[in-house]
């Protein structure tokens, strides 16, 4: 049995740029400050992880629960507004590739995203990647990407795997995969890695990386 996990933004959906903009805007809406798009300066590159660090830096920890609730509401609202009036594209070949994996008896699939669950499902649906049966672990579950991936593995439902592979597009995806001993495949050209695909039209290459 092979476990295959997927990040979402930039990995399955062409949403990295507008997602970043919506997140920055939501922070500004609630906290009145601008944060740059360089996520690599944060220890936990997830929605809740970045927000938690921003709150700590501002010395607002005592009000963190209210702030988190308001930022999340603003962010989800902004993503909803965006997808309602813009076309959201899947990474080429993503739907077909997921369909292939889901149909196989020897593969368990799950989503493991640093985004919040509500916005993650919204973006998947907007891009036509409608797999409601695929479990999703997200920043709504934990601030740590490593813990999100561990949860996704448990949600996938099989305790023993011949291989565990994570498809991602950021250096934080690669780092988390290395920490967990996952086989990492980079998607697109944002980072370089020994195993990479341009998109899922290179399905044969992707399957070979998984070990299929």
TrEMBL record:
Keywords: Hydrolase. InterPro entries: HAD-like_sf, HAD_2, HAD_sf, PGP-like_dom2. GO terms for molecular function: hydrolase activity. The keyword Nucleotidyltransferase does not apply. The keyword Hydrolase applies. This is HAD family hydrolase.
């Amino acid at each position: 049995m092979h476990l295959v996990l997927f990040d979402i933004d930039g990995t399955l959906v062409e949403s990295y740029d507008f997602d970043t903009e919506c997140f920055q805007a939501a922070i500004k809406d609630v906290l009145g400050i601008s944060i740059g798009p360089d996520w690599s300066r944060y220890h936990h590159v997830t929605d809740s992880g970045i927000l938690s660090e921003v709150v700590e830096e501002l010395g607002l920890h005592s009000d963190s629960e209210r702030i988190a609730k308001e930022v999340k509401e603003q962010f989800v609202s902004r993503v909803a507004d965006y997808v309602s009036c813009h076309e959201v594209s899947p990474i080429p070949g993503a739907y077909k590739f997921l369909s292939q994996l889901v149909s196989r008896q020897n593969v368990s699939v799950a989503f493991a995203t640093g985004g919040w669950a509500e916005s993650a499902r919204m973006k998947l649906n907007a891009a036509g990647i409608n797999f409601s049966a695929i479990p999703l672990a997200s920043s709504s579950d934990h601030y740590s990407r490593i813990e999100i991936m561990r949860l996704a593995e448990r949600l996938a439902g099989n305790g023993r795997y011949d291989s565990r592979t994570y498809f991602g597009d950021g250096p934080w995806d690669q780092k988390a995969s290395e920490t967990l001993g996952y086989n990492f495949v980079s998607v697109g050209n944002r980072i370089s890695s020994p195993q990479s695909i341009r998109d899922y039209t290179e399905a044969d290459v992707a399957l070979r990386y998984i070990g299929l």
